[in-house]
Amino acid sequence: QVQLVESGGGLVQPGGSLRLSCAASGSIFAVNAMAWYRQAPGKGRELVASISSDGRTTYADSVKGRFTISRDNAKFTMYLQMISLKPEDTAVYYCNADLAYYKGSLLHRDDNYWGQGTQVTVSS
């Protein structure tokens, strides 16, 4: 059994900072591409940032210069450092990852998983 779990969300004032974490657990062989998505009520899912297995990153225009995505491959964990937060950043943030994992003795390669989401609220 494998799982992605986000943490670090909360309520912050505009201009504040948060760091989100996404940890993969279970019989993980490797965590490949990872990404953060977000979804506000009544809005579609938005790709916020992504990071490849070798550390190449992409960012949505709306967060460039404010958010930094990173990963710790030894810990199977991804982070999103968010600074200068704006009310428009308010959303549920979801972790997404391509995982290779063992199910019994079989290795499943590059199955896509979602975390349960963590709420980020930016408000004064």
Write structural notes for this entry.
The model has no long low-confidence stretch (mean pLDDT 95). By secondary structure, the protein is an all-beta fold. It contains no helices and 11 strands. It starts with a strand and ends with a strand. Strands 2, 4, 5, 6, 9, 10 and 11 form a 7-stranded mixed beta sheet that branches. Strands 1-3-8-7 form a 4-stranded antiparallel beta sheet, with no helix packed on it.
Briefly, what is this?
This protein is 0% helix and 63% strand. The strands form 2 sheets. Strands 2, 4, 5, 6, 9, 10 and 11 form a 7-stranded mixed β-sheet that branches. Strands 1-3-8-7 form a 4-stranded antiparallel β-sheet, with no helix packed on it.
